[in-house]
Amino acid sequence: MWVMLLRNIFTIFIVSLCVLTAGCNKKRDVLCTDTPVMELASAKFGKHHAVYTLLEKLQKNKYISQEYSQDTRSQFVETQYLFESALASMAKYDQVLRVVGVIYTPAPSTALRTDGNNINQLLSKEQIAQPEVVDTIVSRYESVHAFLKSGATLYNIHQPSDSAPGVDVYNTNVKNYKNLKDVVTNKFNNDFIGASYLIECKDGTRVLFAISFHQVSEDNPRTEWQLFYGDIDKDEKLYNQFIILQNLYKEHGVEFDLN
Q1: Could you give all domains of the chain from N- to C-terminal order, each with its CATH number?
Q2: What is the pTM of this model?
């Protein structure tokens, strides 16, 4: 008993010392989005799933780049689903000050062109035969609508796409969601296909989550998929990526900021 008591006293002393000196394996600052995203990932996939592992790596490294594969596509898009879902909940319950998202795709976002019943119209026969492709579209359909229902602002910058499958569904969504901003451009830059989300935490921290990928309906997938995540004011690479995206979106009349 005395050994255990002394051990507990020693542990308390060490913990107190760590708090006072900010030592003992000092970790990076915890962001307001960290826990909600990881809890959602654990609930949906489990802690031993590749998506959960990917998120752990992203939180630690702030940037991930992987060559295209079907596994990469599925994991990255499911990561986007997790962030959209977590941000939707945080915005709905006033756990963040502000959230703004930008989807940058050649055609309107696949997730906004499906009503859940027309997926077969949006995909090739080969894609329909791949459950993981269908699953990610269903996931994003759920998360993007949750994001919009939370009241957070979402822009979709895309090329003229009057003949794109499901464009009638997209137009209905634009009509129904006043916070869904439709931006049509003739100066689309294929090097930046993806989506970006800018969050202001209640402590004033500015967080960026961005994904660079190819749209599921594209014939030629990007060879490199990228994820960015973290405090843009404490990491030069993240800040530079934020400025690149901010300038890109500004060319299309979109202010990617938190004002």
Answers
A1: 30-250 (3.30.870)
A2: 0.85
